[in-house]
Amino acid sequence: MHIEILGKDIRVSDQQKEKIERKLEKFARYFGDEARADVMIQPEGDQVRAEMTIKIRRHYYRAEADAPDSISAVEQTINKLERQIRKQKSRMKKQKKEYAYMRDFFANEEFSVPEEEPQMEMDIIRRKSFQIDPMTPDEAIIQMEMLGHSFLLFLSEENNKVALIYKRNDGNYGLIEPEY
């Protein structure tokens, strides 16, 4: 597993990096070299926020947590990732080909924890189609706010590609520009 650890407005020591890598070994054992983990550590007020994204093949798992120190934040983030993966366990079993790499992860008894939450079947209950209009990201923000949505898909005037603008938890906005 390739692990990238970055500190934003904070220095991550070599000792902290080693601890984080040791904690991520549980995923590396199962997912091998095909997985990539990106860990971002940054101060958030009097707390430290750890954001972690694991990419395995074409699937992404992401979590974040705040704690008084970086190692605690990383531990909480890893626990959230494990819960996310377990929660989707039944869905993954149905789609065996796409999630074959998870078989070893679920087979290990070290991770067998009684499931706290009832399994929820996720169905698409509504489909919607709409015209994608070309606009700038600023225009997309205005349009999104006028509609009262938390995201908006639009055609970027800058590069004539599909883009997504979304409202972040901190009140700012994010822009996703897929590469295809």
Description:
The structure is a single chain. This protein is of the alpha/beta class and 180 residues long. It folds into 2 domains: 110 residues, 2-Layer Sandwich (Double Stranded RNA Binding Domain); 43 residues, Sigma 54 modulation/S30EA ribosomal protein, C-terminal domain (SHC Adaptor Protein, 2-Layer Sandwich), CATH 3.30.505. The protein is built from 6 helices and 8 strands. The chain has a 4-stranded mixed β-sheet with strand order 1-2-3-4, covered by helices on one side. A hairpin with a 5-residue loop joins strand 7 and strand 8. Helix 1 runs parallel beside helix 3. The longest helix has 18 residues. The protein starts with a strand and ends with a strand. 16% of the residues are buried. The model has no long low-confidence stretch (mean pLDDT 83).
Helices, strands, pairings?
Layout: E1 2-7, H1 14-23, H2 25-31, E2 35-44, E3 47-56, E4 59-67, H3 70-87, H4 89-94, H5 103-107, E5 134-135, H6 137-147, E6 151-156, E7 162-167, E8 173-176
Parallel strand pairs: 1-2, 5-6
Antiparallel strand pairs: 2-3, 3-4, 6-7, 7-8
Task: Output the keywords.
180 residues; alpha/beta; Double Stranded RNA Binding Domain; SHC Adaptor Protein; globular
Strand content: 25-35%
pLDDT averaged residue by residue: 83
What best-fitting shape do the alpha-carbon axes yield? globular
The description of the largest β-sheet is: 4 strands, mixed
Helix/strand/pairing class, anyone?
alpha/beta
How many domains?
A: 2
Rg: 19 Å
Task: Identify the CATH architecture of the largest domain.
Answer: 2-Layer Sandwich
Q: Measure the end-to-end span.
A: 25 Å
CATH topology group of the largest domain: Double Stranded RNA Binding Domain
Low-confidence stretches: none
* Order of helical and strand elements: EHHEEEHHHEHEEE
Query: Would you count the extended β strands for me?
Result: 8
Task: Give helix % range.
Answer: 25-40%
CATH superfamily of the largest domain: Ribosome hibernation promotion factor-like
Widest sheet, order of strands: 1-2-3-4
CATH class of the largest domain: Alpha Beta
Q: With helices defined by DSSP (H or I, 4 residues minimum), what is the helix count?
A: 6
